[in-house]
C-alpha cells in the first residue's frame, strides 16, 4: 500500500507507536541524506547516533507508588516518541524523513503531530542538514474570482495546498516565518475595498494545514510587510473606508500578538518592505502629502524603535524579491529591466531582461536555489520562466526554467523546512 494512503487511513491514536514505526520504516533506502518512507528505522537511527548523543542512558528504576489513573496520565504525557530510543535520537530519526511525508507522519499520533508542527522540529532538520527548499506560487483562478496556492517541491512535483480559509480576499500580504506561511489582512472581494480585514492565517508547511492567528490591531490592505529578526512588521496601507494609514505594528510569533510601534511620518500606501541587516526598509507606493509616487525610503530600527529617511528609492514597483544582500525589483515604467538595490552601499544598478527566451512583458519574482525566477504574468503557454543567477560568470547570468505556474502568477514565496 502507498505510504501516504496508509497513513491517511489510520485513525489517530489507533495503533501503538511501535506498530506505526515498524510499518513506516520498512525496507531501507536513502537519497541525498534524506530518509524516504521506504527506509528502515534501523538505518535512520544509525545515522542519528552520529549526532553526539550520550552513549548510555541511565534510568532510575525506582519509582514511587501511584494510582492506576495517575500512572496512565503520566505514561501518556511521557510516552516515548519511538519506543526504546531517547527522544533526542527519535526526533532526529523522524527529521530525516522526506518533508513531503510530514503531514502523513503528523496523522500517526498527537505526540508526532505536536512535534512535527513545532519550531524545534525545524531546528532538528536544520542541524541534520536535510532542510528542503520549496516554492509556493499564488495563482489566479481561471474565472478571475479568486486564487490558489501551487507548490513545487525539491522533486519538482507540482501540487496544490488546501484552500486559504475565510472569505476570498485581495490586497493581502504574505510573509514566511519559522518555515510557515502567513497570509495577512486584505479586504473581502465580495464587499470591496471598504471591508478592510485584520485577519491573519498561518499555513503549516509540514502539517499541510491552516490555522487562525491573532488579529492585527488595525485592519489594512495594500500595505508593506516583511520579516526582520523573527518578527513580522506591517506598515501603512489603506484602512477601513479606504483611509490611508501611517500606522505600523509588529507581530511576535512566540506569543501570537500584534503590538503597535511608532508610526510613519506620513501615510503611505501601495508600498512594499524587506529586511536587511536587522532593519526594516519601506519603499515605493504613494503618500497623500507628495505629488505622484513617493521616492524616499523609510527605515525602521527595531533596537532604537525609530524611523529615519533615505533618499534614492524606486517607485511604482510591480514585483520585488530579496536575494542574498540585494533587493531586486521591476518598475512599472520599464518591464524589461531588473533594478537592483544594495542597502549596504545605498546603490542601484540595472540589468536588461533578455527578450530571447520569453516574448512576454510583465513578470512576478520567485527565488529557488539561490537564483531569481521571473514568472510571466500572463498564463500564455508560450511564455517561459526566466532565471537570473547573480553569481554566474558574466554573459551566463540568464537562462530558463521548467518551473511554471498553471496560470497567472500573483506572487510567490520560498520556504525552507
From TrEMBL:
Origin superkingdom: Eukaryota
The keyword Nucleotide-binding belongs to this UniProt entry's keyword annotation: no
Record keywords: Kelch repeat, Repeat
Keyword Membrane belongs to the record: no
Domain F-box positions: 83-121
Name assigned to this protein: F-box domain-containing protein
Gene source species: Lithospermum erythrorhizon (Purple gromwell)
Amino acid at each position: 500500500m502507498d505510504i501516504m494512503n496508509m497513513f491517511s487511513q489510520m485513525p489517530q491514536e489507533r495503533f501503538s507507536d511501535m506498530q506505526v514505526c515498524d510499518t513506516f520504516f520498512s525496507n531501507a533506502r536513502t537519497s541525498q541524506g534524506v530518509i524516504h518512507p521506504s527506509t528502515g528505522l534501523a538505518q535512520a537511527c544509525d545515522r542519528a547516533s552520529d549526532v553526539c548523543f550520550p552513549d548510555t542512558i541511565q534510568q532510575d528504576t525506582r519509582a514511587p507508588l501511584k494510582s492506576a489513573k495517575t500512572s496512565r496520565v503520566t505514561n501518556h504525557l511521557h510516552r516515548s516518541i519511538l519506543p526504546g530510543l531517547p527522544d533526542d535520537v527519535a526526533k532526529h530519526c523522524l527529521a530525516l524523513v522526506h518533508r513531503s511525508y510530514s503531514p502523513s507522519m503528523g496523522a500517526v499520533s498527537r505526540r508526532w503531530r505536536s512535534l512535527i508542527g513545532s519550531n524545534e522540529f525545524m531546528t532538528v532538520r536544520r542541524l541534520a542538514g536535510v532542510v528542503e527548499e520549496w516554492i509556493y506560487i499564488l495563482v489566479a483562478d481561471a474565472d478571475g474570482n479568486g486564487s490558489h496556492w501551487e507548490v513545487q517541491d525539491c522533486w519538482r512535483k507540482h501540487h496544490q495546498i488546501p484552500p486559504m480559509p475565510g472569505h476570498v480576499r485581495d490586497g493581502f500580504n504574505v510573509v514566511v516565518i519559522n518555515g510557515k506561511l502567513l497570509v495577512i489582512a486584505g479586504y473581502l472581494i465580495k464587499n470591496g475595498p471598504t471591508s478592510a480585514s485584520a485577519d491573519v492565517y498561518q499555513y503549516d508547511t509540514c502539517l499541510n494545514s491552516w490555522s487562525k492567528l491573532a488579529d492585527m490591531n488595525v485592519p489594512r490592505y495594500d500595505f508593506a510587510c516583511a520579516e526582520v529578526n523573527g518578527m513580522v512588521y506591517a506598515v501603512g496601507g489603506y484602512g477601513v473606508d479606504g483611509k490611508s494609514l501611517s500606522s505600523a505594528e509588529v507581530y511576535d510569533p512566540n506569543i501570537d500578538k500584534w503590538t503597535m510601534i511608532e508610526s510613519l511620518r506620513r501615510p503611505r500606501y501601495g508600498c512594499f518592505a524587506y529586511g536587511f541587516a536587522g532593519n526594516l526598509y519601506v519603499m515605493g507606493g504613494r503618500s497623500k502629502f507628495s505629488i505622484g509616487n513617493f521616492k524616499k525610503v523609510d527605515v525602521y530600527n527595531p533596537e532604537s524603535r525609530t524611523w529615519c529617511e533615505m533618499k534614492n528609492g524606486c517607485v511604482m514597483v510591480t514585483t520585488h524579491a530579496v536575494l542574498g544582500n540585494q533587493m531586486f525589483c521591476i518598475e512599472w515604467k520599464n518591464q524589461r529591466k531588473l533594478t537592483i538595490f544594495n542597502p549596504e552601499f545605498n546603490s542601484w544598478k540595472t540589468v536588461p531582461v533578455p527578450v530571447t527566451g520569453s516574448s512576454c512583458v510583465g513578470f512576478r519574482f520567485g527565488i529557488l536555489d539561490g537564483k531569481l525566477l521571473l514568472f510571466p504574468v500572463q498564463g500564455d503557454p508560450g511564455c517561459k520562466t526566466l532565471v537570473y543567477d547573480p553569481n554566474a560568470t558574466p554573459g551566463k547570468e540568464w537562462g530558463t526554467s521548467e518551473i511554471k505556474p498553471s496560470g497567472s502568477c500573483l506572487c510567490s514565496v520560498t520556504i525552507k523546512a
